[in-house]
Structures are given as structure tokens and as C-alpha cells.
Give the backbone structure.
Amino acid sequence: MAGLLRCAAQWSADAVQIRAAGLQNSAWSDRATAASGGAPKINKQEQKTVMTDFNRRNILAGGAAALAGTAALGETAQAQVGVTAIFPVAHATIPVVGLKEVFPVRRIYCIGRNYAAHAIERGSDPTREPPFFFQKPTDAIQVVAIDTVADHPYPSLTKNYHHEVELVAALKAGGTNIPVDKALDCVYGYALGLDMTRRDLQNAMGAEKKPWEIGKSFDHSAVLGPIHPVTKTGHFTKGAISLAVNGTVRQNSDLTKMIWNVAEQISKLSEAFELKAGDIIYSGTPENVGPVVKGDVLLCKLEGLPDMSIKIV
């Protein structure tokens, strides 16, 4: 503010000098005119009075204009500092076991066809296919509390709704081109998750060579339990993972059968995106994915984590 006032004062002073110079030139012109028989001369006392009155008026006017401009700039700056949203939008978070604080979610990444048997059942050759990733919106998250059976709504548009049980890694740090041997340093914790899929819509889009976001990215499609800090669980490089529907086991495998482990996934993903704290990664599902209908109860298991269960409603 002080700087703006100094600029305003300097501007006013410059303006006075310019106008005064103009008045002096006018006085000399009038004197010349009088000498040639024109208008009467202006004596020094009259010139001094005119100049004094002019200076006062010009300083007051210039100062007022400068202050008005300064006030306007001040109001603009104040308005920018006080920016608020036009309406509230909820931010996705995940509970952390043992803490009151929650994990804020920035992005959801998912890796496709990361178990050889699942890649084969989806029509791919796991020996030749590099990893590929897709994303879900953060508001697709449905958190399932430990020792509960959460109602999970059957989504619209589909008649072939599939389950995919997965290990989920939650990041506390990130970067680009992260080396594999440094990748696990980015992991904050792990959770058990379900990548729910409208398979008929995914297949239809795939057949037309169109993006199949509609089959993967919809409300409640990112189901998971609370996050367990890696300081409590260690890193998951092996362990049985399974899913049962109404007591019958459908998916049953081990984390060692992942084509790309968590560290490799993080490294590969960071080649395409700058990873950051708050990102979570669904690490792929084993074979025998299949359909569910209303009334079905799903029970997910991962060695080293509590079970997770939902009921399709």
C-alpha cells in the first residue's frame, strides 16, 4: 500500500510539472500577443496566483484519483485472498487402522491383467503383454468397516456384474521414473479391495475398440477396507488371496503369482504419471472372476489382513 501511495504522489507531482510548464508557455504566448497589440499582459503576481491555485487543484485531484485506484487494487487483492468455492464438494478419504486421522485420496490407479491365469481367461498372452493401467474416480470409493457386511448397490445398465478381489497399495510419496529398488519407500500402507466391474459394458466397448471406462469407473466400484500402515504389516510380496460368494470359493491364488509386483507397478506407473502422496493402486486380480446378483454375499480374504465382506443389494 505504501508503495502504491508513493507512486500516486509521484504521478501527481509529474502531472503538476507538466501542466505548470504548459501554463508558463501559455503566459509567454499571451505576453507576446499583448506586445503585438493583443490581450493585456499578465504580471508576475497574477501568474504566481494562477500557478498556486492550479497546483492546489491539480494535487488534490491527482491525489484523489491515485487513492481511488489504490483502494480498487486493494479490494481486488482482498477478494483474491478470500476465494471460496461456490458449493462444497466432498473429498474421498479412507480410515487408517489405529489412527483418528484418515488417508486422503488423490487418485485411484488400477493395473489390468496382472495375474497370468486371469490374463489368459481375458484373452491375453501374459508372456508378451506389458502392464497397462486405468483409473477410477475417487468418489467411486466404498469403504467397508472391519467385522461388518456392507450393503453394495447393484449398478445400473449392467446384467453381468463381476467381482475382482485385489491387494491395494496406498502411497505416502511419489515422483517420476521411480527405480524399482526405491518404489516401496513410497508405500504408506495396504488394504484389501474389490474392483467391481460391469463386464458386459466393458466387453462391448472393448469389441468396438472404445475406452471401457463405463465398465470400470462408476459409483461404488472401488470397494476396500481400511488401510493398514506398512509399519504394522510389512510389505505384501506373498500371501494367499481369495474370494467366496455365498460360501463357495471362486477366486483363490497367491500374491507371488502377480506378473508385476507392487514395486514394479509403482516404477512402471511413474514412467507415465507423476505419482504423489494420496494415490492408491489396485494391484490386479487373480483368475475366476465371475458374476454376482442381488442377495449374494461376498467374502474377501488376504493373508495378513482382516476379511472384508459385502452384500449385493
